[in-house]
Amino acid sequence: MNIRLFKPSLGKEELENIKESFDRSWIGLGPNVNKFEEEWAKFVGAATATGLNSATAALHLALKVFNFPKGKKVLVPSLTFSSTASAILYNDLIPVFVDSNPETLGMDLDDMKQKYDKDVVAVIPVHYAGHPVPMDELMPWAREKGLKVIEDCAHTSGSKYKGTPLGLWGDIGCYSFEEKKLMTTGDGGMMVTNQPELFKDVKAMRWVGIDKDNWKTAQSYTDVNKDAMHWFYELNVLGYKYNMNDLSAAIGLAQLKKLPEFNRRRGEIIQRYMDGLKGLDGIKPLLPYEPEKYVYQMFGIRAENRDDLMIYLKSKGVATGCHYTPLHMQPLFKSFNGSCSFIEKEADKFITLPLHADLTNEEVEYVIDKITDYKN
Ligand SMILES: Cc1ncc(COP(=O)(O)O)c(C=O)c1O
């Protein structure tokens, strides 16, 4: 057995779309990116979406559009991937690390409120593993304080919380299509909003400061606009090389069609894990999974002797992971003086187990059996 922790589910549909790009001989920023943006906006129910090369880039630009004064503070969970907090540093802002809710492991809203001070300008809730942060409580509080809210949706794609899609509760939602995510474009990301004025410079910011559709220019170059100055562009904002390209978008367009089925299958696997591991002494699900309601990118457990169990599972051919070492304990972020007493102790128990749409029932049973054998 060699069971992978995550795995993209790729097929001939992705290859067919890539072939179309090859036939068109256009693989950079182009028509596929536009189409994928339109379809993603429709899928989420957002007014507008912009495709990027990663969620890291999306988070960077999401904060950037607000042009916060240097040195202001942003509330962010400690239990997240580096990018959520790195985006704050990229913007010359200060991360304020917030503890996790003991049950859901999402941002603890009491700790968040306690850590607020007058220098805080924004909050970045992360829907950890896909489980929603209670946005119905967070948003009224954030609005009362005048804070901007950026949702890190790297672990969710297509879930609604209390009737509103995750990613549209706050001002901007950021998604990841990196290869371990719910769907993939190899690497890629998307940012969405229902306030299009926020995105007025985003297309330029993601493509070196130029807000121009090169594909359209190329199409009309020799016929439609004979007298147009096709070479003209203006630089008004500082841009980055953060655009998605047409090859990634080709994969994304095929993956998006399959996403509902991927999500359904993930839910089924999570239910199997929960049934199979129920009642095992010293093993608890990572969080209160509700696979019939929400989409999850990770399935994990909390185990007392975590390291030993992980090494045992490795010896049986089962890949596992730890998500994450709390960021405030990482050397890079230590100087920000965060104290998150719950997650500091608890994160040592987390084990992420294999979860991807191609995982077979036999493989899930094998993982459950090996954990059971270990406990007996
Ligand atoms: C919570 C979270 N935020 C952001 C990111 C960054 O995503 P990307 O790899 O697309 O930049 C990740 C990626 O693993 C993530 O898990």
Automatic annotation (TrEMBL):
Pfam families for this protein: DegT_DnrJ_EryC1
Residue(s) carrying N6-(pyridoxal phosphate)lysine: K181
Entry annotation: catalytic residues: K181
GO MF annotations, alphabetized: pyridoxal phosphate binding; UDP-4-amino-4-deoxy-L-arabinose aminotransferase
GO biological process terms held by the UniProt record: polysaccharide biosynthetic process
Enzyme kind, highest EC tier: transferase
Coiled-coil features, chain-numbered ranges: none
Enzyme Commission number, as recorded: 2.6.1.87
This protein's record includes keyword ATP-binding: no
InterPro entries according to UniProt: DegT/StrS_aminotransferase, PyrdxlP-dep_Trfase, PyrdxlP-dep_Trfase_major, PyrdxlP-dep_Trfase_small
Keyword annotations: Aminotransferase, Pyridoxal phosphate, Transferase
Alphabetical list of PANTHER family matching this protein: DTDP-4-AMINO-4,6-DIDEOXYGALACTOSE TRANSAMINASE, TRANSAMINASE
Family (UniProt): Belongs to the DegT/DnrJ/EryC1 family.
Protein name: UDP-4-amino-4-deoxy-L-arabinose--oxoglutarate aminotransferase
